[in-house]
């Protein structure tokens, strides 16, 4: 019997979220039998793939007590860069585009990271500022115009849509990122340093971990994820313009928080984040089926964020009984 | 003495303001005109009215990034009330009431539920704006009675708009409260060291709750003024204003680390911000490009003191 007992809160939490998601799938399938068909589930996963990759990056940032509000703007800017590059050099193929969007995203993330690391500025203020700067730069680059599918090379668009074993390249990328994140976050020394830096920065500093540097690395990785997703987003929807993914950062944060990443830092797992994304992805793709307009998505994100932080706050309550602990 | 005054943030803001005035009047012969200047005030009065209580909140070491969401929520509530045939007085009540209620939700999350204010207000920002979108979708509400337009379009005396008069009155009230009463001292103390303040017998959580409630109320007032000025409500109303309002507060010399700043600074920052955006508007620079300026300004203003090693 003992081996079936779940060892940690995290595992219990992950399991209940997984059950909740399955319940949701079952409920929707009960009304709309086609929902649980493998082909449809594959398309739901395809719809969620970008959210997964962004949320894994965001997880690292939140782990080290930061937050990155600029991910969606970063994604949109790198997507525009990728589209413009492809328009200028249609024959260059996909690899330069991938490298460009990944590199540009990492650079934009590094800018956030340097400000948080070297100047010790509050992450919320920094990324609120860069969110608006990055978004504005897209307008300057594109002069407000759209880049449409007819201006994109076939290879540029085909990359994300290519199928392998019934799943798109996009889905396989999300799976690869998740597997890499799960393995790295479990075993590696860097991962332990992330958890230590976020869990107790003072203690981490005394044991020789440069907390600011860990924050910088988190922002760079988060930015690289956003940049890569920029190309993937633009290729998948075959259009690039100033306002793509507007407000998507809130969905990314919601996915992390419902996935068990503590906003106070130091707690969270890649598996939990994956489950959080799937939960939101299933909700999002069943909305049109049950006749709720897409305009409700933001409301749902808000409820999810608040429920997740309220649950998180209840767990720490005992630690802050009379006087609050220093956040 | 003079040296100390020169190094003060407020003095620098006043200097920037003078430079703005001189350069704009050199650039455009129409600038130094009572009507032009009166028009320019609409660029900041609504935002600045929210910046005043938000300044107190940031001095107390908290933050509220849901203010623009509250404005949208209050505007949508007023829009539906107007659809149902509500009169101007009722609409004012609905706008202010919605703002106050939303502020109380933030306050309750931070004080009773002990959620850090950053994430609590990220959540409510999403929720409030989300309710506005869910309720309205792509529709527009505009069945406001004619007399409702007074708040945002009317004038108090001569070229002084009702909005500007309200801002002046509230700026004086907030300055007197923050710099002249023991409650104001307590707000500084909370921002500097909440635990020590709690030990000194000050009910820190009451202050926090009240500050969130007042910030919500001010956002409700801003919603009344903005909706009245525009004459219509879309769910995207006041999109991105949280950035602009926080930028005004931080530009006003309020420390993001809490415990420091003055209302005079916030008032000067409002004028500086209003004039700059007005000037950029005169040069036909689109809003999205102005947002580069606002974002860069916010980062610059927090980065410069850090670079100079002053906190």
How does this structure look, described?
The complex is a heterodimer of chains A (327) and B (311). By secondary structure, chain A is mostly helical. In chain A, 71% of the residues lie in helices and 1% in strands. Chain A contains 13 helices and two strands. In chain A, a hairpin with a 2-residue loop joins strand 1 and strand 2. Chain A is globular and about 55 Å long. Chain B has 311 residues and is mostly helical. Chain B has a single domain (9-307), classed as ABC transporter involved in vitamin B12 uptake, BtuC. In chain B, 73% of the residues lie in helices and 2% in strands. Chain B is built from 15 helices and two strands. At the A-B interface, helix 5, helix 11 and helix 13 of A face helix 7, helix 11, helix 13 and helix 15 of B.
Question: Oligomeric status of the shown chains?
Answer: heterodimer
CATH architecture of chain A: Orthogonal Bundle
Give the class-level CATH name of chain B. Mainly Alpha
CATH class assignment of chain A: Mainly Alpha
The CATH superfamily of chain B bears the name: ABC transporter involved in vitamin B12 uptake, BtuC
**Strand-and-helix sequence of chain A, N→C?**
HHHHHHEEHHHHHHH
Could you say what the CATH topology of chain B is called?
Answer: ABC transporter involved in vitamin B12 uptake, BtuC
* Strand residues, percent of chain A: under 5%
Task: Work out the largest interface and the residue count of each chain.
Answer: A-B, 52 and 52 residues
Structural class of chain B: mainly alpha
Shape of chain B: globular
Structural class, judged by helices and strands of chain A?
A: mainly alpha
């Amino acid at each position: 019997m003992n081996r079936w007992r779940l060892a940690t809160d995290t595992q219990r939490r992950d399991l209940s979220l997984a059950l909740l998601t399955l319940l949701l799938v079952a409920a929707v399938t009960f009304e709309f039998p086609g929902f649980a068909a493998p082909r449809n589930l594959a398309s739901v996963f395809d719809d969620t793939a970008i959210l997964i990759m962004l949320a894994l990056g965001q997880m690292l940032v939140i782990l080290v007590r930061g937050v990155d509000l600029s991910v969606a703007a970063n994604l949109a800017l790198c997507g525009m860069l990728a589209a413009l590059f492809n328009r200028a050099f249609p024959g260059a193929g996909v690899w330069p585009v991938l490298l460009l969007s990944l590199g540009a995203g990492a650079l934009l993330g590094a800018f956030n990271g340097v400000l948080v690391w070297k100047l010790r500025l509050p992450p919320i203020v920094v990324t609120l500022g860069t969110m608006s700067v990055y978004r504005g730069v897209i307008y300057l680059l594109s002069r407000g115009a759209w880049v449409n599918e007819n201006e994109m090379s076939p290879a540029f668009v085909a990359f994300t849509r290519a199928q392998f074993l019934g799943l798109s390249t996009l889905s396989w990328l999300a799976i690869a990122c998740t597997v890499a994140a799960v393995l790295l976050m479990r075993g590696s020394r860097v991962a332990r340093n992330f958890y230590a830096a976020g869990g107790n920065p003072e203690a981490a500093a005394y044991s020789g971990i440069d907390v600011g540097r860990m924050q910088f690395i988190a922002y760079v990785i988060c930015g690289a994820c956003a940049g890569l997703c920029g190309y993937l987003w633009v290729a998948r929807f075959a259009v690039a313009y100033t306002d793509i993914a507007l407000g998507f950062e809130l969905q990314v944060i919601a996915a992390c928080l419902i996935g068990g990443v503590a906003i106070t830092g130091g707690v969270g797992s890649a598996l939990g984040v994956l489950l959080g994304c799937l939960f939101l992805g299933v909700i999002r793709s069943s909305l049109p089926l049950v006749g709720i307009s897409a305009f409700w998505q933001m409301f749902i994100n808000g409820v999810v964020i608040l429920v997740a932080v309220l649950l998180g706050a209840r767990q720490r309550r005992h630690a802050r009984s009379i006087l609050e602990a220093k956040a | 003495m003079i040296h100390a005054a020169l190094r003060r943030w407020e003095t620098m803001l006043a200097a920037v303001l003078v430079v703005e005035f001189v350069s704009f009047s050199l650039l455009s012969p129409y600038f130094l005109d009572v009507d032009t200047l009166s028009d320019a005030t609409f660029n900041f009065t609504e935002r600045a009215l929210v910046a005043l209580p938000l300044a107190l909140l940031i001095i107390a070491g908290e933050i509220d990034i849901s203010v623009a969401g509250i404005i949208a929520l209050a505007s949508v509530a007023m829009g539906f009330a107007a659809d149902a045939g509500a009169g101007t007085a009722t609409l004012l009540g609905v706008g202010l009431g919605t703002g106050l209620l939303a502020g109380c939700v933030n306050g309750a999350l931070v004080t009773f539920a002990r959620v850090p204010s950053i994430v609590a207000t990220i959540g409510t920002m999403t929720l409030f704006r989300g309710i506005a979108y869910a309720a309205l979708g792509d529709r527009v509400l505009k069945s406001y009675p004619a007399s409702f337009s007074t708040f945002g379009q009317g004038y108090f005396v001569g070229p002084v708009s009702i909005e500007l008069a309200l801002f002046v009155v509230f700026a004086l009230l907030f300055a007197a409260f923050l710099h002249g009463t023991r409650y104001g001292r307590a707000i500084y103390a909370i921002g500097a060291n909440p635990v020590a303040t709690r030990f000194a017998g000050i009910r820190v959580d009451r202050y926090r709750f009240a500050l969130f409630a007042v910030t919500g109320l001010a956002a409700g007032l801003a919603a009344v003024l903005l909706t009245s000025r525009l004459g219509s409500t879309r769910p995207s109303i006041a999109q991105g204003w949280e950035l602009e309002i926080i930028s005004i507060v931080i530009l006003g010399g309020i420390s993001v680390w809490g415990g420091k700043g003055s209302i005079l600074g916030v008032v000067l920052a409002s004028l500086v911000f209003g004039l700059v955006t007005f000037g950029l508007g005169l040069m036909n620079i689109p809003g999205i490009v102005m947002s580069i300026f606002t974002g860069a300004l916010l980062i610059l203003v927090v980065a410069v003191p850090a670079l100079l090693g002053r906190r």
